[in-house]
Amino acid sequence: MDPFLGFFVVAALGLLGIRVVHAGTVSMNDSICTVHASLDGSDDAPAILAAFDLCRRDSVISFVDDLYHIESVMNTTNLSNVQVNLHGTLLWGTNITYWRANGLPLDYLNMTTAWAFGGDKIVFNGYDRGTFDGNGQLWYDFTNGVSNLPGRPISLMITDTTRSVFSGIRFVQSQFWTMAIKSSDDVLLENIYVNSTSSSRAPARNTDGVDTFFSNQITFRNWTVTGGDDNISLKANSTNILIQDCVFHGGLGVAIGSIGQYPGVFETVENVTAERVSCFGTRYSGYIKTWTGIQQNFPPNGGGGGLGYAKNITFRDFTLANVTDEVARITQCTSFSGATGGCDTSLFQVSDITWGPMTGNVLSDTIAQLQCSGASPCPGVRFVGMDDIATSGSSRRVACSHVVDPSGFNCTV
Ligand SMILES: *[C@@H]1O[C@H](CO)[C@@H](O)[C@H](O)[C@H]1NC(C)=O
Ligand SMILES: *[C@@H]1O[C@H](CO)[C@@H](O)[C@H](O)[C@H]1NC(C)=O
Ligand SMILES: *[C@@H]1O[C@H](CO)[C@@H](O)[C@H](O)[C@H]1NC(C)=O
Ligand SMILES: *[C@@H]1O[C@H](CO)[C@@H](O)[C@H](O)[C@H]1NC(C)=O
Ligand SMILES: *[C@@H]1O[C@H](CO)[C@@H](O)[C@H](O)[C@H]1NC(C)=O
Ligand SMILES: *[C@@H]1O[C@H](CO)[C@@H](O)[C@H](O)[C@H]1NC(C)=O
Ligand SMILES: *[C@@H]1O[C@H](CO)[C@@H](O)[C@H](O)[C@H]1NC(C)=O
Ligand SMILES: *[C@@H]1O[C@H](CO)[C@@H](O)[C@H](O)[C@H]1NC(C)=O
Ligand SMILES: *[C@@H]1O[C@H](CO)[C@@H](O)[C@H](O)[C@H]1NC(C)=O
Ligand SMILES: *[C@@H]1O[C@H](CO)[C@@H](O)[C@H](O)[C@H]1NC(C)=O
Ligand SMILES: *[C@@H]1O[C@H](CO)[C@@H](O)[C@H](O)[C@H]1NC(C)=O
Ligand SMILES: *[C@@H]1O[C@H](CO)[C@@H](O)[C@H](O)[C@H]1NC(C)=O
What we know:
Elements: H1 3-16, E1 25-29, E2 32-36, H2 45-54, E3 57-63, E4 67-70, E5 74-86, E6 89-92, H3 96-102, E7 104-105, E8 112-113, E9 115-125, E10 131-133, H4 136-143, E11 156-159, E12 162-167, E13 170-172, E14 179-182, E15 185-196, E16 210-213, E17 215-227, E18 231-234, E19 238-249, E20 253-259, E21 266-280, E22 286-291, E23 307-323, E24 328-334, E25 349-355, E26 358-362, E27 366-371, E28 378-379, E29 381-383, E30 397-401, E31 403-404
Parallel strand pairs: 2-3, 3-5, 4-6, 5-9, 6-10, 9-11, 9-12, 10-13, 11-14, 12-15, 13-15, 14-16, 15-17, 16-18, 17-19, 18-20, 19-21, 20-22, 21-23, 22-24, 23-25, 23-26, 24-27, 25-29, 27-30, 28-31
Antiparallel strand pairs: 1-2, 7-8
């Protein structure tokens, strides 16, 4: 590309930002766009958008400075053959009013994101130091435990992305869910560090590590996820998902669902392997969660009555340390907060689920709580090599409802 274009962009941004003479800039040199942070801490999003616009194809985009301020939403989708090098920190701004009013739609569960990102053949490298900092404490205090507060933005939505790799990126203090992956195929996310930890009494609620939707062939390798509620969670139409070599501190573990939240809508999760995962103080190891068959209220916090299936899911070679509640869990009881019952109504079919081998301990007398719906009992539930897990009591409870022909275990309740 013409180097003059780069100078033009720098000049143009300068002209546009006459009042903000220290605004972030882009310099361009052969197909390399370098983003320079503003000198006065003002919004760097316009310069970043300019870089992604100039270098949207067959290019490299480099963030070379230590700190960039993001005060407005970004949509950088439809990239092609782009390498992104993030060496510093992207710090999201504190104007809650702005973010709640301007989030870009996830188009699912009424949720929004601060950055929609995507394309084909993208390599996004953080070199183990490039960081997304969502300034989440502000959100944890503001939200004060309310579930799925409208307009609380997902840090990064990877959408319509194919044949791409995200590597060595750190995500700290996410505003809400750290990542959502939507309508994507063949994406590897490796060496990812996620830590959303509240320093106040307000919990870091809903700071999921990543949620997937309408995506196929997604690999999560070497993730470290920390935080009161973090997890990797595979939702509507997630297929051929591989989770490897991950470490979870706290949170719920690897989750399938929640799913079945939209009445009459057919959704699936199929072919999932999670292997070589360490769970430190998580509530479960691998966990499957569907809404009941009765719709109550509306998503994101209400719903139910969804159809479809989750099948061929394997949680193997897990190391457990002080898992708090139980190791294996299926529940088809999820419903609007405060509502109870309906546990036998879900028509969502759970089948062919394998836990084990696993070693380590659970801080209860319960190995598993497998609550399948009476309206769609679960066949093909298997334990393989789960006998070495230590429980805290003398018993090893496996509580079951509507588990058909359990394999490798006996239901004790
Ligand atoms: C352009 O790139 C070349 C080599 O990659 C480098 O030597 C030169 O300093 C760069 N120029 C600018 C203005 O960044
Ligand atoms: C994506 O980019 C291609 C060219 O690179 C263009 O033809 C297409 O219209 C763009 N799609 C959208 C949704 O912007
Ligand atoms: C926060 O954002 C709102 C809505 O965009 C805007 O009206 C307000 O001026 C901003 N506040 C500050 C302190 O920038
Ligand atoms: C991002 O921009 C593209 C192209 O303008 C548009 O099609 C898409 O809907 C936008 N995405 C979001 C999440 O706003
Ligand atoms: C959906 O989000 C909008 C704006 O973010 C909010 O006003 C509305 O209450 C939300 N709906 C539900 C059902 O939460
Ligand atoms: C795993 O990811 C961390 C960054 O979170 C990195 O420091 C480490 O080298 C990675 N391990 C391997 C085996 O790649
Ligand atoms: C997560 O972050 C908190 C502080 O925000 C820190 O104390 C803790 O050590 C971090 N956990 C990991 C596993 O890095
Ligand atoms: C993941 O954790 C969040 C809490 O932050 C929770 O709302 C969500 O339901 C969890 N996902 C699953 C599938 O358990
Ligand atoms: C999910 O995939 C199934 C096919 O496996 C398809 O029938 C269904 O329409 C998809 N669901 C949605 C909400 O797109
Ligand atoms: C189940 O999924 C795994 C990948 O997770 C795949 O290798 C295996 O072939 C699948 N089995 C069936 C019966 O589809
Ligand atoms: C699941 O894996 C099996 C075996 O590899 C394959 O035949 C099947 O098509 C996969 N299912 C989906 C939804 O990709
Ligand atoms: C598990 O909890 C016990 C008792 O509190 C503690 O001694 C041990 O260090 C914990 N193990 C790990 C790996 O955190």
